[in-house]
Amino acid sequence: MPKAARIISPISAPRIYAERSAIPAKRSDTSEFIGVALFSGIGLFVSLVAVILGIQGAWF
Protein backbone atom coordinates (compact mmCIF):
# COMPACT_ATOMS: atom_id res chain seq x y z
CA MET A 1 0.00 0.00 0.00
CA PRO A 2 1.59 3.35 -1.04
CA LYS A 3 2.04 5.98 1.60
CA ALA A 4 1.44 9.66 0.98
CA ALA A 5 4.31 11.98 1.65
CA ARG A 6 3.66 14.71 4.16
CA ILE A 7 5.23 18.04 3.45
CA ILE A 8 5.10 20.28 6.46
CA SER A 9 6.08 23.87 5.95
CA PRO A 10 6.61 26.02 9.00
CA ILE A 11 4.02 28.77 9.44
CA SER A 12 5.75 32.00 10.24
CA ALA A 13 4.15 34.83 12.14
CA PRO A 14 3.09 37.79 10.01
CA ARG A 15 5.56 40.61 9.92
CA ILE A 16 4.42 43.89 11.34
CA TYR A 17 6.09 46.93 9.89
CA ALA A 18 6.18 50.03 12.04
CA GLU A 19 6.18 53.05 9.78
CA ARG A 20 5.63 56.69 10.43
CA SER A 21 2.42 56.55 8.41
CA ALA A 22 0.89 54.28 11.07
CA ILE A 23 0.92 57.05 13.68
CA PRO A 24 -1.72 59.28 11.98
CA ALA A 25 -3.99 56.23 11.64
CA LYS A 26 -4.34 56.11 15.42
CA ARG A 27 -5.28 59.77 15.48
CA SER A 28 -7.82 59.14 12.74
CA ASP A 29 -9.37 56.29 14.74
CA THR A 30 -9.60 58.53 17.78
CA SER A 31 -11.25 61.35 15.86
CA GLU A 32 -13.67 58.90 14.27
CA PHE A 33 -14.57 57.57 17.72
CA ILE A 34 -15.13 61.10 19.01
CA GLY A 35 -17.44 61.83 16.08
CA VAL A 36 -19.49 58.69 16.68
CA ALA A 37 -19.64 59.37 20.43
CA LEU A 38 -20.85 62.95 19.87
CA PHE A 39 -23.46 61.87 17.36
CA SER A 40 -24.73 59.15 19.70
CA GLY A 41 -24.71 61.49 22.68
CA ILE A 42 -26.74 64.11 20.84
CA GLY A 43 -29.24 61.47 19.76
CA LEU A 44 -29.60 60.20 23.31
CA PHE A 45 -30.04 63.74 24.62
CA VAL A 46 -32.76 64.53 22.06
CA SER A 47 -34.52 61.26 22.90
CA LEU A 48 -34.34 62.02 26.63
CA VAL A 49 -35.80 65.50 26.12
CA ALA A 50 -38.59 64.02 23.96
CA VAL A 51 -39.44 61.47 26.64
CA ILE A 52 -39.41 64.07 29.43
CA LEU A 53 -41.65 66.44 27.46
CA GLY A 54 -43.99 63.59 26.48
CA ILE A 55 -43.55 64.06 22.73
CA GLN A 56 -44.89 61.09 20.80
CA GLY A 57 -42.76 59.91 17.92
CA ALA A 58 -43.84 58.52 14.59
CA TRP A 59 -41.56 55.49 14.84
CA PHE A 60 -44.22 52.97 15.87
For this entry, give a set of tags.
60 residues; mainly alpha; 1 helix; 53% helix; elongated
Tell me what the structure shows:
The chain is mainly α. 53% of the residues lie in helices and 0% in strands. The relative contact order is 0.06. The model has no long low-confidence stretch (mean pLDDT 75).
User: What sequence of helices (H) and strands (E) makes up the elements?
Assistant: H
What structural class is derived from the secondary structure elements?
mainly alpha
Mean pLDDT: 75
Query: For the report, how would you describe the main beta sheet?
Result: none
Q: Kindly estimate the percentage of residues that lie in beta strands according to DSSP.
A: under 5%
The helix count comes to 1
**β-strand number:** 0
What spatial form do the alpha-carbon principal axes imply?
Answer: elongated
How would you name the oligomeric state of the polypeptide chains in this document?
Answer: single chain
**Low-pLDDT residue intervals, each spanning 5 or more residues:** none
How large is the radius of gyration? 27 Å
Helix content: 40-55%
The rounded distance between the terminal residues' Cα atoms is 71 Å
